[in-house]
């Protein structure tokens, strides 16, 4: 059973104008296996799978399903050959229930009967161990629940080959483990699963084999049991990469932020943040851990002037040259003038901070734009900044004059984070700055954050990878349901300790200063 091929690509090539996205790629996927596809940003992973799923059509090469050559010109063709892809951005109708979304558009020749459809959907969820309320509306669901609906949608349509594009990018460690349990059950049932991912420890945990792409070409496929993070990184990058995060002891530590009684009320009357108290220090990296949607976004946005807080809330900024400055009530522009930069990278990467139709140079100028005028007398200075970010962060782009919307998600991220760091802030807040980035780019970002710390900047880092938080951060503050449940020392903390705090019931007596 293991040796039977479910899918085979032979000599597949795809070009977009002069850009070669994939060149002469050949790889195989067996029945009952999980194949991880690994590669740096722009290596052609998603493009390759988009050809298998019918979104793109190859310029050259052949695709075989169960040993027979097939022609896939659309997602409908892909489903005909029992191939389904779950993309990073979900395609669901918010006002419909899970069941309604799953059965939407299915043409099986049977009369529409939602009760019968729900029974068939329930059989799928029970078989593979999905945990989902089939009557729940999409707008009430978490990201992991929406992803579950997308996966069941594909299974309901009869898919035997499933392709998941960065499936854990927005999941917590707990949600990731649940997903992996489901994928293992599907593998036992003979399904073929292809995962596109950047997370090496997850590749080693869940896959049977790893196919490595580099600059659009397939360079190797290795059994996971024979691989290590270092060997996979070297194969992916074509050179030896240092995977160590160097954490220097904090020096010349100065209090920069003193947050007291910070409370944010949502539109529905519930509290996104409930009486949050903590301090952030220049010369250290303060990590923030928590299950997705527990208040991390509101916390950073409150400090940046993007969230309305209650009257008792206080956010004191303590610069060197002025007395304490109250940030509550100040506009984002006034707060930026004080030296506080926010680099928040949401799921919609162009939703905050960058304008997709503007080129990289113009996006550098955005921060200085005021009242119809710009602080730059010409494009010379922002052009230098754009070129510097492109070189230092290895942004894959034809030039600095390329519209940002034409860049891959990972490269958009590099431009945004690079610009925020270039502002030279006294307080730098970054949320998920390496989401969607390859391993080399991720470690470049970690290095830049450490450099900012050494310059005396107070760095606040919201991350989803607990291993990175422990390696990079001096202190880690854990948030659950808008309340701080604990602060731990990065040097001595464990993932288990942080995981418990992420699900801990509220304790309002926690000392969130983190100092003795």
From TrEMBL:
> SMART domains, from UniProt?
AAA
Question: PROSITE patterns of this UniProt entry?
Answer: ABC_TRANSPORTER_2 (PS50893)
Q: In the UniProt record, does the keyword Translocase occur?
A: yes
User: Which GO MF terms does the UniProt record name?
Assistant: ATP binding; ATP hydrolysis activity
How this chain sits in the membrane, per its record, is: Peripheral membrane protein
Q: Which residues form a coiled coil?
A: none
- Subcellular locations according to the entry: Cell membrane
Pfam hit, one: ABC_tran
Q: Which residues form the signal peptide?
A: none
Q: Which GO cellular component terms, listed alphabetically, does the Swiss-Prot or TrEMBL entry include?
A: plasma membrane
- InterPro entries xref list: AAA+_ATPase, ABC_carbohydrate_import_ATPase, ABC_transporter-like_ATP-bd, P-loop_NTPase
Q: Keyword Transport: yes or no?
A: yes
- Keywords, in A-Z order: ATP-binding, Cell membrane, Membrane, Nucleotide-binding, Repeat, Sugar transport, Translocase, Transport
Give residue ranges for domain ABC transporter: 7-240, 257-506
SUPFAM superfamilies per record: P-loop containing nucleoside triphosphate hydrolases
The protein's matches in CDD domains, at most eight in alphabetical order, are given as:
ABC_Carb_Monos_I, ABC_Carb_Monos_II
Mostly located where?
Answer: membrane
Q: Which domain of life is it from?
A: Bacteria
Please give the name of this protein: Simple sugar transport system ATP-binding protein
From what organism does this protein derive? Eubacterium coprostanoligenes
